[in-house]
Batch of 2 targets.
Target 1
Amino acid sequence: MTSLDSLALRRAFGSFMTGVTVVTTRNAAGEPVGFAANSFSSVSLDPPLLLVCPGKFLSSYDSFATCLHFAVNVLAEGQEEVANTFAGYKGDRFARVAHREDALGNILVDGAVAQFSCRTHDVVDAGDHAILIGEVQGVSHDAGRGLGYAGGRFFSLGLERAALEPSGNAALFGAIIALGDDVLLEATDRGFRPPQVVAEDRENSRQRLCQDVAGRGQPVTLGPAYSVFNDGNTQCSYFLATANGGGTTGFTRCPVAEIPDLKFASSAIRDMMMRYAVETRTRSFGLYIGDARRGDVHQSQEGT
């Protein structure tokens, strides 16, 4: 058997962007149980089949491995708290989430963009998980957007797209690059700032930003948007990023814990980096939308 770094494998799997679901059934006592999963896929249209993959580490695993029917709820943008509840909350999860029953007695989560009521078609053993295949007995669908998940974090395509829409101003794109417990910054006469580029072609802005940073010796993987704001006549968009080996040529490697002691190139950048320092500790990253002085943080917590 090939020996693999399990953490590296987990991160590689996590680079595939998915939606987020909550899967529900009832245990032998008739009590509702559920878990959050991004391992969900359609299988067949005729017959209508789908699959989810419950982990054997789940306290409710036996209930799903032996259930006769179950439901899959595809969560909508803004339902991060629902996902977190079913991913880690140890109390009564259903008391914290608005829901109703389907005709089979399964729990359907209110506000989900799609809901599938299923009869169990097959259960296949698969390592530390099982593949639970369901034949869809009923389906409902909403026109909203689904909640996204990649790289261990939730993201909202609708929110990011709206924030990144051209505003008519000049466009600046930057990357907050994590390297272990440090962050990579560039020094200017006015203070530190994340690496950034000015881009006229917004459609290729992420690619140009990655190329610019890589050209200075540091390949990166860009994550979700972290802060989008207007600063005078410039629309500034900063993304979370992860360093992919390489060097730090042209950058200063600063411990995140020392961010409060640094001088930054502008008050807007300082506010952003101070928030980043706090959210790095809590592993709960939000998307700021506003201007250089005030705005709102739309929270998207990191998954576990």
Target 2
Amino acid sequence: MEDPRRWEVFRAADQIRAEGKERVSLRTVWARVKLNAGVAGNNQSVGGHLAEWTRERAYSPIIELAGLPEAVETGLAKAGVALWKAAQAEAAAINERTRLRMAEAIAAERELRHEALGMVDARDAVIEAQCNEIAWFADELERMKEHLRTVRARDFWQRVIQEVRDILPEREALHVGDITLRIGADLVQEAEEHVQAWNVDTVRGAIDERIYRKRYFVAEGGGRYRRRRPEDGGVAA
């Protein structure tokens, strides 16, 4: 069912146009609707119906108020409508081209972003590989340091044992306490550099370890030690 307000707006606009005295506008149509029907309604409602009337009637106030012949007016109105449609089509084409350019720009930006992310991933991989290599070298350095400490400690205790061999008399035994006191101060100080505990028990342990392997020394009991002789077997002092 047709909206009564639409009919009133169309009737008012047709009347004003037919009279040809003033322009068909929201103001004049609203006033005519109010005159015809008593109530015009709000401007938004009247304006919507008036816009529809303008399209359907191909109304052009500039052409009609110029007083041109009806045939010319109709032709110009149609030309205006065609021009408007062409302008709309051109605007739509421009919008489409703009949309395509934006889509291309977005695609290019995404490609650059993916490429940048790939470069970041490659950089991270290189950094990780370098970190792993550094960690390996650090571990290798620690292993070398530990090996060096072991070699130096072994050399240190070999010199301590040689000192004990030099301290022991040819035929007499000495108590481990006396042996420890006679060891040179340079070796005692070096023991601190090797983080070695230096006391009678440490020296006894070094001597006992050689006795276990039948090298250099023989235990006489009571904490006393002497040089190993050929008749004792093993490696003599």
